[in-house]
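Anyone else keep sequences and structure tokens together like this?

Example one:
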Amino acid sequence: WRGAPWRFVKKGDCRNFLIHRRPVSLMMKIVLLTALGVGGATIFGSLIGFVFRNISHKFSDIVLSFAAGVMLSAAVLGLILPSLNYGGTHGILVSIIGIFTGAVCLNLIDKLVPHLHRLVGTDTETHRSTNLDKVLLFVTAIAIHNLPEGIAAGVSFGSEDTAQAMMIAFGIALQNIPEGMVIIAPMLAAGVSPVKTFVCAMVTGLIEVVGTLLGYWAVSIASAILPFSLAFAGGTMLYVISDEMIPETHAHGSETGATYALLAGFCVMLVSDFFLG
């Protein structure tokens, strides 16, 4: 059986049957393309930000809420539940510890880097009064938050459920688009040239590419940490949704629309999981 494209699932995995394993080179190409797509979503969002510099709160909140719903569904269905399945006898304990560890890690990051919505709002008046140091801190905060999001995308490929991993990456990428959009206006208002502004946006996206590859590499060399890694990634996503995305989308009078957009995003992922699962 040396070199055979099949493997037996270890006892404790609820799916005790033969699973086809894709060639490593093919999987690596898929992960790399996904990483570029996740990071590229931030760059794509920044290009939209150049074209539409005065996007309304309502539109921004709806898009971000939809992304939050997609990410919420992806975190539960694509990361936390698989963590339980792969964890065996102690799956529930490993998953709970992983979720809280992921949340605590992002909480510590927030202690070092102030919350995104406290640094820069989306009001034009705020943008014009924002100084360069504050804007650069804002961009740094987005870059730091992108790293664990990228890791979550990479870790999801460790489960070998490529369809589910792609949906998780899609949810993160969708959230990155409005994130890239909000970088542009404050930097231009602070006097940063368009070229340097775009480079900064590109760097924040590249950090997510690095995170994706790092997450996949970690679970590839040590499959034993997969259950914890999946739960950890799920915990980071739940923290971002609750601490950043939902408060931001409910702060400008669009609570009802934002709530239904979140439900719509969640259901889109639910339907996708049903038909692809």
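And example two:
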Amino acid sequence: MKTIAAAILLVAGFTNLFAESETWPVYAFQNGVHFKSAEERVKVLKELGYDGIGAARVNDALSLPQRLKLYDEAGLKLFSFYVGGRLEPKGHNYSKEISQAIKDLKGRDVILELYVQGNKKANTDKQAVAFVREIADQAKESGLRIVLYPHTGFYVDTLGTAVRVARKCDRDNVGVMFNLCHYLMVEPKTDLKAVLTDAKPLLWQVSTCGAEQGGSDWSQLIQTLDRGSYDQAALFKLLRELGFKGNVGFQCYAIRGDSRDNLKRSIGAWNKLHSQ
């Protein structure tokens, strides 16, 4: 019996070790993958060791089915699309191209990163919920999930707002996304552990980037991952402790310089961070 018990403990120890060393799928935001063609995007991401691309735009030189085929053939994944709409004085408005994309993505393990524009004073959660439910119900028919994407200056601008609206939606395919740069821009003094803990059951995706602690503009808050004073190790230690199992994207908006070099610097910093 002692031998059996020892064996069970040994297996459990290895299981814990593997769980602790588990890495998250990582993708680059399309806004930082600036190359002449979709084919070149795929080639560079593959060579550098990314798992795929995300925060992609619905519109592209190649049709969505063609892009999906391209990534499939390269063994890469198209993780997510960045889409959204605006709350109006009455109702909401969004591009019908989103609805077509949802149909084209049927059966795919793809997430829609949904932003919700609007005015905090003029609009309401009720309006936001109506909009999100409309998209979520379409997505459900295609087997897709949605994450509410907190964005500076939008109606959904903080992780807390995203969680509140997601819960009110009462849809099992609606979750939330944490975006480091928008968190640091909108609510840098908010208790990060508290908001992430509250979001835990709905937290399906995270974006990060190099950032200056205390930064006040995008050039400081969106950098390659090897730059900036923000403690990335502490962030991902917290996410690991919370049991985060989703995807991780690198925000690349308006980062200057050569795209390939920037992508190489970020994936290099990521690999170094998770080898320590």
